[in-house]
């Protein structure tokens, strides 16, 4: 599963691009009530398909998971939770002001849902 982020991003190699292809890989934690959602950034789907290196640091978030209420499709659940995470402020700065989200919600779209 993947997301397409349509925002200007500068890669760790210093390349500026208008889109980033983000691959998602969920893993159920042993406790059964958490998901680790690993995600990797590529300059394009073609780069990913061709085995290119990631263009930004690979990252991981851990999210709550309740199989009874959310179901068993952890890929879909991880996709939704990562989209929410990337498009929501993740805390406050030293002055108590909300930090901006990583990406604007209107610039994140679902692609490759398999």
Structure description:
The model has no long low-confidence stretch (mean pLDDT 87). It is globular, with a radius of gyration of 15 Å. The termini are close together. The strands form 2 sheets. A 5-stranded antiparallel β-sheet has the order 6-5-4-1-7. Strands 2-3 form a two-stranded antiparallel sheet. The chain contains 3 helices and 7 strands; from the N terminus they run E-E-E-E-E-H-E-H-H-E. The chain has helices at residues 45-49, 67-70, 74-86, and strands at residues 2-5, 9-10, 16-17, 20-28, 34-42, 59-64, 108-111. By secondary structure, it is α+β, with helices and mostly antiparallel strands.
Question: What secondary-structure arrangement, pairings included, does this model have?
Answer:
Elements: E1 2-5, E2 9-10, E3 16-17, E4 20-28, E5 34-42, H1 45-49, E6 59-64, H2 67-70, H3 74-86, E7 108-111
Antiparallel strand pairs: 1-4, 1-7, 2-3, 4-5, 5-6
Note the main attributes of this structure.
114 residues, alpha+beta, five-stranded antiparallel sheet, two-stranded antiparallel sheet
Structural class: alpha+beta
Major sheet size, sense and barrel closure: 5 strands, antiparallel
In quaternary terms, these chains amount to single chain
Low-confidence stretches: none
- Helix count? 3
Average pLDDT number: 87
| CA-based shape | globular
How is this structure best summarized?
By secondary structure, this protein is of the alpha+beta class. The protein has helices spanning 45-49, 67-70, 74-86, and strands at residues 2-5, 9-10, 16-17, 20-28, 34-42, 59-64, 108-111.
């Amino acid at each position: 599963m993947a997301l397409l982020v349509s925002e200007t991003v500068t890669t760790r190699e210093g390349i500026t691009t208008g889109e980033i292809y983000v691959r998602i890989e969920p893993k159920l934690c042993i406790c059964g009530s958490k998901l680790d959602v690993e995600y990797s950034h590529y300059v394009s789907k073609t780069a990913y398909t061709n085995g290119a290196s990631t263009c930004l640091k690979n990252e991981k978030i851990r999210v709550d998971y309740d199989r009874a209420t959310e179901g068993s499709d952890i890929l879909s659940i991880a996709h939704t939770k990562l989209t929410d995470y990337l498009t929501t402020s993740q805390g406050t700065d030293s002055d108590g002001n909300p930090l901006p989200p990583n990406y604007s919600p209107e610039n994140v779209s679902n692609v490759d849902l398999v």
